[in-house]
Design brief:
The chain is mainly beta. Helix content is 5%, strand content 44%.
Length: 333
């Protein structure tokens, strides 16, 4: 995987074969070399923990988090950055995408990997870590975390932090604390206009890319058509729910990675539909049926199960479920 990633950006690596370990020791990724004088070497982390074997011997499964890190042997824990409403719980690999409206605070969480228990990685809140915008160099894809940017914020004792963007479009964030941690995964944030509307396609370097050598050979044809880039797989993620106790309804935010149609349904709720004109967040209203509203008036609270179906303009349909607790203020009953 590391070789493929370097190949896609036109870089290479260097290393030494150690017969005693039957593996390579990587000494350079792209332009970044080991620094023996400072005791800083490249190493591979599996689920946030330094791997006991090299990259050639390490066996991975779907869902594993793999990271080649510089100065990996200095006992610095790796960081995990996620949206506070990320549907993938700690310590799973977080969603690479988040969404928020312009000038609206985006709650985030920063954790550090602390080891493993029963083969499952463990994490703890990371305090005093800077979450800042990422600048991506055109062509090479090399990334720099700008901790001096005015948007940068520092995590609290519980790992919480919030960032507010004042311009729309795609933005990037990472958590970085060089002295004490290995920097985090990247979070690509769709900052929508006030009221929503998406951000357009996901950035090209955030889409799934396949090295040329893995693509099937094509037989030459006369007058071949212009080459096309296959569309990335469309994804659906259910995010934050806002409850309105005055009306007894709620608003469910669904993030989609491509244009398409969404439908919300459930036994105790009215069916709803909405169009996604671009990648971004679509707001779906959760409204109880007449019978369910009568129960809500009696009890003040009502749990409803909703299912959101997503049919992208191109690609396979998908769906996701969420339990929503509706509330009604006493004066509204």
């Amino acid at each position: 995987g590391a070789v493929d990633a370097l190949d896609l950006i036109g870089e290479d690596f260097d290393g030494t074969w150690f017969s005693g370990f039957e593996d390579y020791g990587i000494s350079r990724f792209g332009p970044e070399n080991d620094d023996p004088g400072a005791g800083a070497f490249w190493g591979v982390l599996l689920d946030g923990t330094l791997s006991p074997v090299g990259g050639c011997q390490s066996v991975h499964e779907t869902g594993d988090q793999i990271l080649w890190a510089f100065d990996a042997f200095s006992a610095r824990p790796a960081l995990r950055l996620a949206a506070a409403d990320d549907p993938l719980p700690n310590p799973a690999a977080p969603s690479p995408f988040a969404a928020v409206e312009v000038d609206e605070s985006l709650p985030l969480s920063v954790h550090e990997f602390t080891g493993s228990a029963g083969g499952v990685p463990t994490v703890a809140p990371a305090e005093g870590v800077t979450v800042a915008p990422v600048q991506t160099e055109a062509g090479s894809g090399f990334q720099t975390v700008d901790t001096a940017d005015p948007l940068a914020e520092v995590s609290a004792a519980d790992g919480s932090v919030a960032v507010t963007f004042d311009t729309t479009g795609w933005h990037r964030l990472k958590a970085q604390d060089d002295a004490n941690h290995i920097r985090s995964n990247r979070l690509d944030v769709c900052v929508e206009p006030d009221g929503g509307g998406g951000c357009g396609p996901v950035p090209a370097d955030a889409q799934l890319r396949v090295p040329e050598r893995y693509r099937p050979a094509q037989k030459p044809v006369v007058n071949p058509p212009a080459p096309t880039t296959p569309a990335p797989a469309a994804t659906l993620e259910l995010r934050r729910v806002s409850v309105d106790p005055r009306s007894g309804t709620a608003t469910l935010r669904a993030f989609v990675s491509a244009p398409g149609q969404l439908g919300l349904a459930g036994r105790k709720v009215r069916s709803r539909s909405a169009d996604a004109r671009a990648a971004g967040v679509v707001k779906l209203k959760v409204i109880p049926t007449a019978a369910a509203r009568a129960s809500l008036r009696r009890n003040g609270r009502l749990q409803v199960g909703v299912q959101v179906a997503y049919t992208p303009d191109t690609g396979s349909a998908s769906s996701s479920r969420r339990t929503v607790t509706l509330k009604l203020a006493p004066r509204q009953r």
